Here is the input.
Amino acid sequence: MYSKPKKIGSIEIKNRFIRSATFEGMATEDGYITDKHLKLYKKLAEGGIGLIITGYGYVQET
Ligand SMILES: Cc1cc2nc3c(=O)[nH]c(=O)nc-3n(C[C@H](O)[C@H](O)[C@H](O)COP(=O)(O)O)c2cc1C
Here is the structure.
């Protein structure tokens, strides 16, 4: 049941496993992502999680 695809609104996720947001403590002092983040999210995606919710992020004004 949890391994079947599921629709959330118009988005279909491939299974019902959801990775909840967590505090990763991997950003730089001034808030930039690091290779540690990239490795973590790559690993989660490759592990087959249906929906990954990231930690806090913000859009920087240019
Ligand atoms: C940006 C963000 C970071 C979070 N970080 C953590 C975390 O480090 N540890 C944690 O247990 N929950 C964290 N949460 C809350 C979890 O996403 C989740 O809602 C909670 O762990 C649910 O567990 P509970 O029902 O037992 O409270 C975070 C939520 C957000 C939005």
In short: The chain has a mean pLDDT of 92. The CA atoms of residues 15 and 48 lie 8 Å apart.
